[in-house]
Structures are given as structure tokens and as C-alpha cells.
Amino acid sequence: MQANRSRDTRLELEVRSAVHARGLRYRVATRPVPSVRRSADLVFTRARVAVFLDGCFWHGCPEHFHLPATNPEYWGPKIAANAARDAETDRLLVSEGWLVLRFWGHTVAVEAATRIEGAVRERLASLRRPAEG
Predict the structure, then answer these.
(1) 20-48 burial, b for 16+ CB within 10 Å, e for fewer?
(2) Ramachandran area for residue 97 (φ above 0: left; ψ -120 to 50: alpha; else beta)
(3) Which DSSP category does 39 fall into?
């Protein structure tokens, strides 16, 4: 399993390139909240948007994941634990005021970049608006 990349996957590189081409700047493989020991694939610190690009196998994509016939007693709990950790990460980040965006490995990079751009620009615009009241 050492050959499996934890960062700089094809999808990550494509999404980062598409997001960068849209004029957005971000941090790569960074903890959005230092006290939460989880790194997001792209982090927009000022907008407080954390982006995760999840592999279909490792995170249990409902569309593409199939439990391997070899050693299913290992892989079943392993993938379930990954999915539970993802849900906990989302909950922790949201409680700290972050917007969490997750994309599956089969996502088209340009589509992901479009959603990311919209979310980041919306959050940045809301920071610039004067407080009502």
C-alpha cells in the first residue's frame, strides 16, 4: 500500500490547476484547524473553506466501492472507519465555522473547480458586506 499516494493524486492536480486558473489561491494538504488532526486537500483560509478529494475505494463511494473478495473482514471495517472519520471531520470543521466540500474520485475536475470557486467567492463576498442592523 506504500504506492498509494496520499496527496498529489491525478484528481488533486487537475482540481488545483483548474482552481488556480480561476484566480483562487489556496494551501495544499494543510490542517484547517490546528487542533483538529486532519488535513484537507485544499484550504482557503480567509474564506474558511476546506476541500477534500476522496478516493472512491478508500472512502467507500456509494457508486463505485465494492468490497474486495480477498480479506473482506479487514477491508469492511477499514473503509467504514474511514467514512466515520470523514463524517467526524466534517462535524468538527463545521462547528469551527468552516464550509466543507467533498468530492469523489470520479468527479470531473472542472465541475469540482466550479463549485469550489462559487463557494469561496460567496464566502469572501459575505466577509466584505457590512453588518446589517
Answers:
(1) eeeebebeeeeebbeebebbbbbbbeebb
(2) left
(3) -
The model carries a pTM of 0.89
**Cell 462559487 sits on residue:** 118
- Take residue 43 and report the three cell numbers written for it: 484550504
User: Is 60 strand, coil or helix?
Assistant: coil
DSSP 132: P
Pairing assessment for the beta strands 27-30 and 49-54 based on DSSP bridges: unpaired
Mean pLDDT of all residues belonging to the chain: 92
Which residue type, as a one-letter code, is found at position 22? Answer: R
The C-alpha atoms of residue 54 and residue 72 are separated, in whole angstroms, by: 21
Instruction: Indicate the pairing of strand 99-104 with strand 49-54.
Output: parallel
Q: Residues 6 or more apart from 61 whose CB is under 8 A from it? A: 54, 55, 104, 105, 106
CA torsion sign for 86, 87, 93, 98 is positive
| 71's grid cell | 480479506
Average the pLDDT over 107-133 and give the result. Answer: 90
